[in-house]
C-alpha cells in the first residue's frame, strides 16, 4: 500500500520490464490479440455500413454526376473490401510486431499521421490536402476524447518496452497509427476524393469511435498483470513547444499560461494555416509584412493584448473627428501597417525594440490583417461600410489571440456579429437609408466595440442580439412596403392583361367588318371596359365572360344592313336581349343612369333607321356617325395590345451581342438576392429581387426599405449583366468568403 503523502498520479518509470523477458512476450501477445480481435470486428461493421451509406447518398445526390460517383464507389468497395480490410489489419499487426521487437515508430515518420503543420504543403495536391485535413481532424478529435485512457495505455506500454517514451503518435494502437494504417489501405481503392472522404468519416464513426473498449481491455489486462496497477489517468501539461492556445485564456490563469486546445477542428484548421504561412515565409525569407525574422524574447499574451488595447483606445477617440473623413486608401494603409504599429507599441511598453512575435501569434496577426484587407476589397460592401467595418481590425485581432476558434467555428459570436454587420451593409445605400438609421446603428456597434471591448467576448453576443432586434424591426417595416409594391404591380399587370384580352376579343371579332361609329365606339369603349372588369372579377372561364363575348357577336350582327322582312324580324327579336345585356354592362362600369338612357336613345334611333320605321331626326347620318362623350373612367381600346413573347423580346435585343450565359444568369436569380445597378452617370444603387411576375415574367427590385427601385424584363436584365450595369452580390457569409479567399491566396506562390 502506498504512503498517503506520496502523489499517486506520478508514474514511476523505474518500473521497467526487460522487453526480452518471457513475461513481456506474453503481455505483448495479449495486447496483439486484444487489438486484432477488436479492430477486426470494428472494421467489419464499418464495411457493412459503407455500402448502405453510399447507396443512401446516391439516392439523394444533387445531380447525375454525383450519383454516378457514389454508385462507382459502392462497386469499388464491394470489389476490394477484402483487400482493404486485410491491408489495414496487416499494417496494424506490423506496427504491433515492430513495437514487440523494440522498433517503435518515431512520431514524425508517417506523413499520414502527422499534424498538417509538419507537411510541406507546396508538394501536396488539393485532394491530398483534403485527405490530410480529414485524417488530422479525426486524429485530433479522438486523441482528445480518449486522452485519459490513451495516456494510461502509453504509460503501460512504455514500461513494457523498457521505459522508452511513448506518446499518442507512436502508440501502435493509437488513433494516429490506426488512421495511418487505414490511409495506407485506402490506396487500394480507385474512387473519387468525395467518396474517399465519406469513407474516412465512416472509419471515424465505426472504428475510432469504438476503440474505447480496446483501451479499457488493454489497461485492465496490463494492470491485472501488475503493470502500473495504481496508475491514475492524469494527463501531463502541454509542452512549451506546442501550438499556441486555441481556446480562450481563463481570467484566473497566469498571463503566460496557455489555455488547452479544446477543439480539434479549430486546432486542425490553425495548423493547416500555420503550414501555409510557414511555406510562404520560407519561400520569401521574411514575415508576411516583409520584416526580417529576428531573435530575442517573444512578447507574452499580456504584452500583445496590452499593446492592442492601447492602440484600440487611440482609434476609439476618432469617430467624431478624423474617422469620418478617412478615405478608403487611408484605412487600407492602416490595416496593412497594424503589425508594425503593434510591434512598435510593444517596444515602447518594454523600453526596448522588438521585431517579431511567436510563429502562431504572427500567423494570427497576418490572418486578421488579410481578413480586413478582404473586407476593404469586397465589392459586396458599399465603400462607406467597408471603411466603417475596417475599423474593427484591432478588436477582432484581440478576439483571435484570445480564442482562435473564431476562424473555424461559424457559431463563434464575434464571427456571427461580423457576418450580420456585413449582410446588413450589403443592401445599404444613401438613397435607401435617408434617415441614416442603419448607418448609425452599424457605427454605434463599431464604436462600442472600440470603447468597451477588453477581453470579454460576451460583448459580441450582446451586440449581435441588439443588431438582430434592430434588423427585425426594419425587416417587418420593409416587408409591408414590399408587399404593397408587389400587390400594386400585380394589380397593374392583371389590368393590362385583361385589357389586352378584351382588345384581342373585340378586334378579332370585328375583323374586316365596317361598323357604324356608334356601334364601334360602344364596343371599344364601354363594352371593352365591361369585359376587363369581368375578367378581373370572374375570370376567363366564367359564364359572365362567355356571355360578354356573345354580346359582341350579337351587337356586330345587329349593325348589319337589313334588306328583307325576315331580316327585320330577326333584328327585332335580338334587340330586347341586346338592351338588357348592355344596361347590365353599363351599370357594372359605373355609367350614370342618365348617360345610359342617352346612349340607349341613340341606339334606338339607329335601330329604327335600320328597320326603316322612321327617318333620322337630324341630318342624314348624324346618329350613325356620332357617339356621345363617355366618362373618363371608361378607357378606349383601339388596338389589340398583345404582349411580346419572351423569345420575340430576346430576338429584338440580339444586336446587343450578349450570349446565353447572361440569359441563364437572369433566369437563375432567386427572390431575395441582392444586385447592384449602375446608372449611366456612374452612380450605383443596390436592390433586392422582390418578386417575379407570373404574368409578364418581369423582375421587381426593391431597396432595403421595401420601396421599388426598378423592374426589368428577362432580356433587359440579361443585357444589363452583359453590359456590366448590373451584377449579383454574393449571398455567402462574409467570413466564409474571406477564409476561402485567404486560403486560396496562401496556396498561390507569391509573384
UniProtKB/TrEMBL annotation:
Residues 478-505 form a coiled coil. It comes from the Bacteria. Keywords: Coiled coil. This is DUF1631 domain-containing protein. It comes from Luteibacter jiangsuensis.
Amino acid at each position: 500500500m502506498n504512503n498517503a503523502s506520496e502523489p499517486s498520479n506520478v508514474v514511476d518509470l523505474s518500473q521497467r520490464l526487460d522487453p526480452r523477458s518471457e513475461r513481456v512476450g506474453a503481455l505483448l501477445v495479449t495486447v496483439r490479440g486484444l487489438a486484432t480481435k477488436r479492430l477486426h470486428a470494428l472494421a467489419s461493421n464499418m464495411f457493412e455500413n459503407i455500402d448502405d451509406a453510399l447507396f443512401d447518398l446516391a439516392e439523394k445526390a444533387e445531380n447525375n454526376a454525383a450519383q454516378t460517383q457514389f454508385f462507382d464507389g459502392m462497386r469499388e468497395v464491394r470489389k476490394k473490401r477484402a483487400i482493404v480490410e486485410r491491408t489495414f489489419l496487416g499494417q496494424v499487426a506490423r506496427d504491433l510486431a515492430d513495437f514487440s521487437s523494440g522498433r517503435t515508430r518515431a512520431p514524425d515518420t508517417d506523413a499520414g499521421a502527422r499534424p498538417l503543420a509538419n507537411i510541406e504543403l507546396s508538394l501536396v495536391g488539393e485532394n491530398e490536402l483534403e485527405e490530410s485535413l480529414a485524417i488530422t481532424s479525426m486524429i485530433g478529435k479522438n486523441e482528445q476524447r480518449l486522452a485519459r485512457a490513451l495516456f494510461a495505455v502509453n504509460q503501460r506500454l512504455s514500461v513494457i518496452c523498457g521505459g522508452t517514451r511513448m506518446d499518442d503518435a507512436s502508440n501502435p494502437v493509437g488513433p494516429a497509427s490506426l488512421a495511418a494504417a487505414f490511409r495506407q489501405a485506402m490506396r487500394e481503392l480507385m474512387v473519387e476524393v468525395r467518396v474517399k472522404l465519406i469513407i474516412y468519416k465512416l472509419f471515424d464513426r465505426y472504428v475510432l469511435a469504438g476503440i474505447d473498449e480496446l483501451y479499457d481491455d488493454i489497461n485492465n489486462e496490463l494492470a491485472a498483470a501488475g503493470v502500473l496497477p495504481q496508475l491514475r489517468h492524469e494527463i501531463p501539461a502541454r509542452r512549451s513547444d506546442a501550438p499556441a492556445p486555441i481556446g480562450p485564456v481563463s481570467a484566473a490563469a497566469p498571463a503566460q499560461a496557455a489555455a488547452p486546445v479544446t477543439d480539434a477542428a479549430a486546432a486542425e484548421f490553425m495548423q493547416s494555416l500555420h503550414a501555409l504561412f510557414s511555406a510562404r515565409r520560407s519561400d520569401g525569407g521574411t514575415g508576411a509584412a516583409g520584416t526580417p525574422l529576428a531573435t530575442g524574447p517573444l512578447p507574452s499574451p499580456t504584452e500583445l493584448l496590452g499593446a492592442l488595447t492601447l492602440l484600440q483606445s487611440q482609434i476609439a477617440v476618432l469617430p467624431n473627428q478624423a474617422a469620418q473623413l478617412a478615405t478608403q486608401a487611408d484605412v487600407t494603409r492602416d490595416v496593412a501597417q497594424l503589425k508594425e504599429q503593434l510591434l512598435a507599441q510593444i517596444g515602447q511598453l518594454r523600453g526596448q525594440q522588438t521585431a517579431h512575435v511567436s510563429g502562431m501569434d504572427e500567423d494570427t496577426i497576418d490572418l486578421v490583417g488579410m481578413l480586413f484587407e478582404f473586407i476593404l476589397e469586397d465589392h459586396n460592401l458599399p465603400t462607406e461600410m467597408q471603411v466603417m467595418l475596417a475599423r474593427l481590425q484591432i478588436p477582432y485581432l484581440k478576439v483571435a489571440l484570445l480564442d482562435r476558434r473564431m476562424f473555424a467555428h461559424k457559431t463563434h459570436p464575434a464571427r456571427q456579429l461580423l457576418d450580420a454587420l456585413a449582410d446588413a451593409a450589403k443592401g445599404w445605400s444613401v438613397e435607401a437609408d435617408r434617415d441614416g438609421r442603419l448607418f448609425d446603428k452599424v457605427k454605434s456597434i463599431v464604436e462600442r466595440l472600440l470603447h468597451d471591448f477588453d477581453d470579454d467576448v460576451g460583448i459580441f453576443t450582446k451586440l449581435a442580439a441588439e443588431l438582430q432586434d434592430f434588423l427585425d424591426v426594419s425587416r417587418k417595416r420593409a416587408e409591408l412596403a414590399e408587399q404593397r409594391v408587389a400587390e400594386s404591380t400585380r394589380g397593374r399587370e392583371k389590368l393590362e392583361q385583361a385589357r389586352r384580352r378584351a382588345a384581342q376579343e373585340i378586334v378579332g371579332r370585328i375583323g374586316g367588318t365596317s361598323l357604324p361609329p356608334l356601334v364601334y365606339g360602344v364596343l371599344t369603349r364601354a363594352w371593352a371596359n365591361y369585359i376587363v372588369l369581368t375578367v378581373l372579377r370572374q375570370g376567363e372561364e366564367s359564364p359572365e365572360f362567355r356571355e360578354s363575348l356573345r354580346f359582341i357577336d350579337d351587337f356586330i350582327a345587329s349593325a348589319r344592313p337589313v334588306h328583307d322582312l325576315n331580316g327585320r324580324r330577326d333584328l327585332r327579336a335580338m334587340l330586347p336581349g341586346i338592351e338588357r345585356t348592355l344596361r347590365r354592362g353599363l351599370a357594372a362600369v359605373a355609367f350614370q343612369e342618365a348617360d345610359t338612357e342617352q346612349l340607349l336613345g341613340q341606339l334606338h334611333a339607329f335601330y329604327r333607321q335600320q328597320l326603316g320605321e322612321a327617318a333620322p331626326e337630324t341630318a342624314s347620318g348624324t346618329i350613325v356617325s356620332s357617339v356621345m362623350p363617355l366618362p373618363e373612367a371608361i378607357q378606349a381600346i383601339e388596338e389589340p395590345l398583345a404582349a411580346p413573347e419572351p423569345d420575340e423580346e430576346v430576338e429584338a435585343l440580339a444586336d446587343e451581342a450578349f450570349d446565353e450565359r447572361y440569359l441563364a444568369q437572369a433566369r437563375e436569380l432567386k427572390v431575395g438576392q441582392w444586385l447592384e445597378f449602375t446608372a449611366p452617370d456612374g452612380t450605383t444603387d443596390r436592390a433586392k429581387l422582390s418578386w417575379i411576375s407570373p404574368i409578364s415574367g418581369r423582375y421587381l427590385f426593391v431597396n432595403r426599405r421595401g420601396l421599388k427601385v426598378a423592374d426589368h424584363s428577362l432580356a433587359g436584365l440579361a443585357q444589363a449583366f452583359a453590359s456590366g450595369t448590373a451584377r449579383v452580390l454574393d449571398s455567402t457569409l462574409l467570413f466564409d468568403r474571406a477564409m476561402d479567399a485567404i486560403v486560396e491566396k496562401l496556396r498561390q506562390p507569391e509573384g
